[in-house]
Write a structure and sequence with these properties.
Structural class: alpha/beta
Number of domains: 3
Distance between the termini: 52 Å
CATH superfamily of the largest domain: P-loop containing nucleotide triphosphate hydrolases
Number of helices: 17
Shape: globular
CATH architecture of the largest domain: 3-Layer(aba) Sandwich
CATH class of the largest domain: Alpha Beta
Strand content: 25-35%
CATH topology of the largest domain: Rossmann fold
Helix content: 25-40%
Number of strands: 24
Amino acid sequence: MSALLEMRAITKTFPGVKALDEVNLTVRQGEIHALVGENGAGKSTLMKVLSGVYPAGSYDGEIHYDGALAEFRDISDSEKRGIIIIHQELALVPLLSIAENVFLGNENARNGVIDWQGTFQRTEALLRKVGLREAPTTLVDKLGVGKQQLVEIAKALSKEVRLLILDEPTAALSEADSQALLDLMLELKAQGVTSIIISHKLNEVRRVADSVTVIRDGSTVSTMDARSQPITEAAIVRDMVGRDMAHRYPERQRRAGEVLMEVSDWNVWHPEHVDRQVIRSASLHVCAGEVVGIAGLMGAGRTELAMSLFGRSWGRNVSGTVKIRGKEVDVSKVDRAIDAGLAYVTEDRKSLGLILEETIQRNVTLANLQGVSSGGVLNENAETEVSEKYRRAMNIRTPSVFQKVMNLSGGNQQKVVLSKWLFAGPEVLILDEPTRGIDVGAKFEIYGIINELSAQGKGVLMISSEMPELLGMCDRIYVMNEGALVGELTAAEASQERIMSLIVTE
C-alpha cells in the first residue's frame, strides 16, 4: 500500500525549547495510524505542522503528501488538499444550528445567497453517514459532547476529507460514545478515508489502529505495524515512557485514621430546572489518610455533588451538613469552603481550573494569596519561591515558572492545578477526573502525589470514569447512580462487575 503522507526529519523550535527533533512519520493510504506519547512529547505540535497552523518555513524538514512536496501556508491551504484536523477542544459555535456549523466557512451559496434547502439536505445526508438522527436545525448546545464530536466529523466529511486527524477524540466521551466513534472511524476507513488518531487510551489504539508511531521527548521512538504482529499495551507503554510499567499504580499502604470529613443528607436541585432534584440525600465520609472513590456513569451527578460541596458552586436549594473533624463547617461560599479545609480540582482545568493567559507562578499562588503577601501587598519573590518549590516537587516540565500556562501540555497543566490547591493547605482534596486526557507516565506521577497526600494524613475524594483507576488507587469506593449513592465497597470487595451491578440493579 502506497504512502499518502511522509513527514521527514521535522524539527520545530520554540524559544528555549526544541519541541520536535527530526521526527519521521509515514502514513499509508486507507489506514488508521495512531500517534501516541506522553503529554508534551510533541504529538499536537507535529499535527499543527502538518495542518499548516505552523506554516512552511517555521520548521525544518519536508512534508510529502500524495506523492508531492507540500508546503502549507495555513489551515485553509491544507483543507483544500483534504487534510482536516479535529482538535481536542471542539471548535463549534454553540448558538448556531448543526447545519450552520457543518458549513461554516464553506457555505452552500450562489451569488452570496445561502441555499438553505440544499444545506439542510446535504447536512441530513452527512448526519446519516456519522450515525446522527438529529434535525439539521438543532442548536449545537442542545447536544451532548459525544454528538458534538460526530458533528465535527460530519463537518470534516463536508470538505471531502482524505486525511482525517483526530486529537484525543474520546477524552471527554462516555464508554458508549467512545465505542460509537471508534466504529465510525472503522466505517470511514472502509470508505477509503485515511485517519491519524492521537490518543492516550491504549485499548482504543489497539482496537482500531493499523500502525502505531510512538513519540518521546520530541523524537520518533518506534513505529509498530499491527498487521504483521499484534501490538501489546506493554510494548507501547515501554516506548512511551522509556521504562517498563509493570505496575500502573504505585504501591500504597492502607492507612485510614479518624473520620476527617462527614457529609450528611446532602440534597441539591438543578439551578435552572427548579423541579429537578440532582443529588438525593447523599451521605458519605472520608477518613484521614484515605483515598475514597466515587464511581458512576456520566450524568450520575458526581461532579454536581463535588461542586455543590465546594462552596455551592453548582445547584440551588442546597441542604445538608458537612463536618470536618467532627465540627460542622460553613461551605456556603467558595472562600468559606477553602477556609474550612476543602479544595476542589475541577474536571475542566482549562476554563475553571486555570487562568491560561497567566504564568505558572501566578496560577500556583492564586488560591492562597495570603501565603505570599503581607499587609495586602504581594511579595513577588515569595511567589517565585513557592511556585519554584512546586515546579520541582511536581516535576512540572517547563523552562521556568514565568511560562504561560496555556503553553504547557495537559499533564503539566494538571500538575499546576494540583500545586495551586496543595499550596492552599487543604484537609480534604476533591479530585474530579484528575487524569483525564493525560498520558500513562504523567498519570503515574499524579497517583504518586495522591499517595503522598494520604501519607500526610490528608483525605482524598476522587471522582473518575476509569474504573481500573478507582480500583487501583482507592481504599473505599462509593457507587453513584441518578443522584443517589447506591452502594459502598471496600478495596477488597470492589471489582468492575460489582460496581456495574450496583449501578444497573438500583
